[in-house]
Fold each of these.
Amino acid sequence: MKTTIVEVGKFVGQEVTIGAWVANKRSSGKIAFLQLRDGTGFIQGVVVKAEVDEAIFQKAKSITQETSIYVSGIVREDERSPFGFELGVTGIKVIAESVDYPITPKEHGTEFLMDHRHLWLRSKRQHAVMKIRNEIIRATYEFFNKEGFVKVDPPILTGSAPEGTSELFHTKYFDEDAYLSQSGQLYMEAAAMALGKVFSFGPTFRAEKSKTRRHLIEFWMIEPEMAFYEFEDNLSVQEAYVSYIVQSVLKNCALELNTLGRDISKLEQIKAPFPRITYDDAITFLHEKGFTEIKWGDDFGAPHETAIAESYDKPVFITHYPTSLKPFYMQPDADREEVVLCADLIAPEGYGEIIGGSERIHDMELLKQRLDQHELDSDAYKWYLELREYGSVPHSGFGLGLERTVAWISGVEHVRETIPFPRLLNRLYP
């Protein structure tokens, strides 16, 4: 019976055959232990000299790391294994030998591992992170489909920028200037006017020369946009969505969280509603915590966000930022025009902002004023203005950065481990 590692629990006491790679091995005289992986999971294969042909035992002892094989064996329950099963090996057929595999069980430096990212992905830790990433993506589609959203794909090449062009990658689009998208938001607003509630999931690019553990040059965003949703409605969707993906990972990735040593008690607390603090109160709080250099009108850096987040055991919304700090399209507070109806969602445990969102300006004249204030070309945004000209409605949306969210939920320190092939300031290889 040919099967996969993740399915072996269905065949306890039976002989199965699995296509696998040898992740590691050790032997002690009359027993060889093979750590096997097949992409779906990891399992230990036990080769007992007295129970197999001599040729099979010698093959098990001499087999090299990452050699690909067809391995046959009896599936046994094993309470000592985190996976719960092991394989009593009866046969080994080598498919392709691996010679001098560069990533050995010893410690390697980060740069070395990043140079070999195409191979590092095979490790148990990286496998766990990628499985959690996949579960977050799966749960994202499930959540928005259940809530009646329509998936829309905005363009990656754009002729304008929602937040200015200073941190965009410029390219030529035949005889025009174009940029790699930093957000699909403006296009999602157009889609919301047609389809009501929409979401996108795709790559975005920031030409930001940052080397922090929270930044990537290319990253993936989930961007919902909702017609007839105002500020409070928007926050409610964010709370429900983040709670949903966290609980989905807890339910479906217990083994991977265990592999990463994640403290799941902290994740179990992530359920809506989330606490909120206004920008004004955050400034006061930071002054009390000794951050006396920050003043009203300044943006928060990583140390400020971390200090605020440490006061809560759930993600916290920081709301009502100064208008001067935010992009042109955000709706001002009707009672206080120097702040906008926006919120950043800050993850616990020092992982920083994972969501930025706001109610959008729906008044045509105000949007024109904002474009002028930000010195943006109104001709380039003609189509965007027309969304307000033909049946404008209040609407809101947000963007969640996938890699920061994966880092927080999985508990890894750096976002470079949360995407298969990270693009960093000085890294475009492999």
Note: The longest helix spans residues 124-146.
Amino acid sequence: MAPRPGAQLLQPSPLAQLSRIALVAAVLGHVVQGGILDYLNVRTGRQATAATELGAGIPWVPSDNETRCYDDLGCMTLTKGWYHLIYRPFNVFPLSREMINTRFILHTRRNPTEGQVLNAENDKTIRKSDFDVKKPTKIIIHGFIDTPLSNWVKEMRRELLKKGDWNIITVDWAGGSLPLYTQATANTRLVGMELAYFLNHLISHFGLDPADVHMIGHSLGAHTAGYAGERVPGIGRITGLDPAEPYFQGMPYYVRLDPTDAKFVDVIHTDGKSIFLLGYGMSQPCGHVDFYPNNGKEQPGCDIAENPIPLTLVKEGLEEASRVLVACNHVRAIKYFIDSINSKCQYMAHQCDSFDHYMQGRCYACKENSTQCMVMGLQAEDYALSLPKTTGMKLYTTTGKEYPFCSKYFCRSLKFTSETLDTHFLGT
């Protein structure tokens, strides 16, 4: 079967759209990234017909379970467990498969720049590609109002290929990542089902070992990875990069990323101030290990006074300047992870009761073969086998203001005995 056609989405005024949902007004930060509509115009070949679907997807609370089925992907049910008066007051079903048009784009060391589209409904696209089932597979999943053409996706892909001879697959769901935010959150469930179907096809028809699969998702992409993981037994690892807070924090485990979605789930929190304070990311632990650099709320270098927009615009372009303006803390998790891939400096994090205690030097012990300390980033999986069965382990670290963000910190303590104190006082 030929790949499903895509579609361009109409984009009403973002402010008009999000005025319906005050909880997610802050996500407008990503709107200033240029290029997503242009990208969709290039990617798709027909005019938008999504208006009808968007109009049909008005918020509602079901009186009973509501179910929709999506061809070979399976069925989706909305129950009352998917609703909460404060955390998730509205819900809709996803847009159609044709509108979201999820695609899987492969890059390897043999084709580092020109991607190859893989389609589970057309095995020739897989057989004729450079996909090697014997090699580990890394899957990158973008978030709200983002595309595979974003600078960070390209940079992460490049650094991963530099690190290892791996299959790098980017999940393209740009057709479903546009506002409304409520609609985008609903679309993540269907994208997760598409990804699960694709991976299960690779497992059953090409011998892929799910333990060799590592999904890396940012914001809504982190929860998308969770939806895929729950449908693919034995997934090796999911890394959540500042998972989105609105409509996920405080909800049951099946609504969001959680430790049951893979053998090892590690999460980096960088923007957990709460959506009411314009924080986009979760502060709630949702992995086997949860890293909180700089307490997981405000990151050094994200203050506008420290990082002027005009200077960033000159250095790194419009896309990065827009991120600094409205989503710097949220995207800093991406930067830390990318920096960790090939950096000789390790982001050493320490288990502690609180960030204040960490900064007071109470948690710097790091015994060999223990989980008192772990490296944040790509190398976190090296510690997975030694983890206890408990989940939600909090680890803290600090970073610098600019690249390279990784820094070495030392805590030196002095212990005085009564004899040394006597000697000291005798000498004065």
Note: The longest helix spans residues 181-206.
Amino acid sequence: MVETLAPYGEAPGMRAILGIVAADPVITLLLAALFAWAAHSSVAVVLLVAALAGQRMVPPETAFALVLGANLGSALNPLIATREPAGRRVALGNLLVRFCGCLVALPLLGRITPLVEAIAGGPRVAVADFHLAFNAALALAALPLLGPLAALLRRMLPEVEAPPGAARGLSLDAAHAEMPSMALGDASRHALRMADILEVMLRDAIHLLSGDGPAAERMRAAEREIEGLGAGLQRYLARLDADALNEAEERRLAGLMSFTIQIGHAGDVLARNVATQIGRRRRLGAASANALDLARLLDRLSANLRNAASLLVTEDDRAARRLAAEKRAFRLLEDTHVAAHVAWLREEPARDDAAWTIDLDLLRDLKRINDHLVAAAAYPILRNSGDLLDSRLRAAAPVGAAPRLPALTPPPARVGPAP
């Protein structure tokens, strides 16, 4: 570094810039703090200052002001990077101690500089000695004040209280790391917690049908809780040592990962799409003869969700088949409702079909939620048992064979309304 800076020491422009900086100790300190924050290291800036001092490019007092700024700037990085209150208290306490030290030391540099120069063997060593002495003095001065400082920091950054019933965070301790089965059991409890929150959201959707306005906000808050739980659970599962898992534990881990992802998607559709469409439906109204029985469908989804949560524990093949059959039931219901809508448009082409469209959108979204529930719990079990086909497509025809087109049949003359 010294050899690299040597040619710049003789440049008139560099000396002029350093002369301007050296004229104001406060600007010197802030400039070094900015450099240390950008470099994420006070040591790098202190070494640079030592090299500048060794080349006589900055006077000793200016070099010491730069050292103070380097110590202050490096304390900003952990404060910016930390989000948890406990971690921010440590970072903020470090910054406050260093800031107070700079306030005390900066006006005294005129008296401190001759003492350090007399002890040190040269400018570069003087910079290093001052850096060490400054941090040692801060430690000695702050130790007796740790109690009051900790109390102040707790008042400034209190703990964020979790909402009632919120699940505790997952942490991979040593016992769980050595016994993956325990870790997977703990993860299963949190996955079931996600299912419980989704069931509450389905009940709030029923309340929203009757005009319960706050239900929509509760659904959005619950969706955010599901999202947070799912992200934490996925990180927890990803930290498990893959080499320590046997085949059954690997399948269990994959199933839990799929469950959390699918439940998260279901919550997203419910909070963002279904809640919005229910609000539109209530404002526009729906034809009583053709309207969906949304309360019944939401109750059916709740039952399917409870079955999915049970499958996460029991992994029963017959129950998985019953849940998978719900996918076909919702698909047939959607086909029937679409056919009824087309028939209604043929009979009443001039009438407004906004209510019909909203019901179709709601049915599509409820079908999507059911698809996520089936994929979350039934499909992993059926896939492991060999009962789930890789594709619903027919096998490809031999090369050169003429393609067979499906027969075209005319639509029925009249299709009744959906049940």
Note: Confidence is low (pLDDT under 50) at residues 162-167, 405-419.
